[in-house]
Recover the amino acids of this structure.
């Protein structure tokens, strides 16, 4: 009995340690089981962006990163994929072998695609997820060109964006209301970087440049030469605002382009950047994606200034493409949805 009493504490300690190890092993097995289950449930989500150089790629990349880091209760692997831009993103979303779940797009192009109008032969079942930064439209020329109005584009060489980018969906209505068509001038295709060079060497007299303010290409052009912005007629803007939901007024502040402006410049949003998906994408997935992006929008701003547009006044703004039920569900939940 004495011998037993002497070793009793040691025996008890060994028993306790054994139980602890057993519990740890059981916990580890359970964690491994959960990890294995999560691994089998991993979901790959891709966001189609655009070629490097514009705002779509960095903003789309920021959105992918922010949602991937902050999503709760989902085993999602999210990536941003470089594409040719809006038109390709729309086609990828509605194709049978869908390779992206979300896409960056220009609202003007989406407007016609979802209706099957313009060059779109059929209605493309896409849906809006979130309205992002405005695409501030600017026709840029040099002071020495003497061009003062949109009508003055006739007979000139005009840079109208990269081939296949779809800029004609918002440029043609603007030009038409000013009494100008693509046949009245020589359209020149090129990136915004090309546009700066073409203005500088005289290859083109005018260049269209759109994007979030300030647009890097406009800033670059103003550092190389004396440029001016060609104004849109007030009556034309009013007509366009009434006809199309993707057009709306916007004012460029003086400090955005100090080398160009001495007073605020009134122009147009010619089709906001927005995030889209396909109509048949799972509602729950879109809900959680939208919620995570909106709740962590400040992190997008750190990566790109366009993230400031993710706010209660703009995120659910109607720009002509119906919203996905998953996004509507979240916007109703936080009280910013308007029927």
């Amino acid at each position: 009995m004495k011998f037993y009493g002497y070793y009793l504490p040691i025996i008890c300690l060994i028993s306790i340690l054994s139980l602890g190890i057993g519990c740890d092993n059981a916990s580890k097995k359970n964690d491994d089981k959960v990890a294995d289950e999560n691994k089998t449930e991993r979901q790959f989500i891709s966001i189609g962006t655009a070629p490097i150089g514009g705002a779509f790629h960095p903003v789309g990349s920021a959105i992918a990163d922010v949602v991937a880091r902050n999503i709760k209760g989902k085993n999602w692997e999210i990536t941003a994929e470089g594409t040719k831009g809006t038109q390709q993103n729309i086609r990828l979303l509605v194709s049978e072998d869908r390779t992206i779940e979300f896409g960056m797009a220009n609202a003007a192009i989406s407007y016609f695609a979802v209706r099957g109008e313009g060059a779109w032969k059929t209605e493309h079942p896409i849906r809006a997820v979130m309205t992002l930064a405005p695409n501030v439209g600017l026709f840029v020329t040099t002071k020495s060109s003497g061009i003062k109005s949109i009508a003055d584009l006739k007979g000139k060489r005009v840079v109208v964006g990269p081939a296949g980018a779809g800029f004609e969906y918002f440029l043609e209505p603007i030009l038409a209301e000013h009494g100008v068509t693509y046949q009245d001038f020589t359209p020149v295709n090129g990136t915004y970087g090309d546009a700066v060079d073409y203005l500088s060497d005289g290859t083109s007299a005018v260049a269209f440049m759109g994007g979030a303010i300030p647009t890097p290409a406009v800033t670059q052009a103003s550092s190389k030469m004396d440029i001016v912005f060609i104004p849109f007629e007030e009556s034309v803007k009013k007509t366009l605002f009434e006809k199309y939901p993707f057009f709306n007024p916007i004012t460029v502040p003086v400090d955005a382009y100090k080398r160009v402006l001495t007073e605020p410049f009134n122009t147009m949003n010619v089709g906001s950047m927005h995030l889209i998906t396909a109509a048949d994408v799972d509602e729950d997935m879109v809900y959680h994606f939208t919620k995570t992006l909106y709740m962590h929008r400040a992190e997008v701003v750190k990566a790109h200034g366009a993230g400031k547009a993710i706010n209660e006044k703009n995120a659910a703004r109607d720009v002509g493409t119906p919203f996905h039920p998953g996004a509507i569900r979240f916007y109703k939940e936080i009280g910013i949805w308007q029927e």
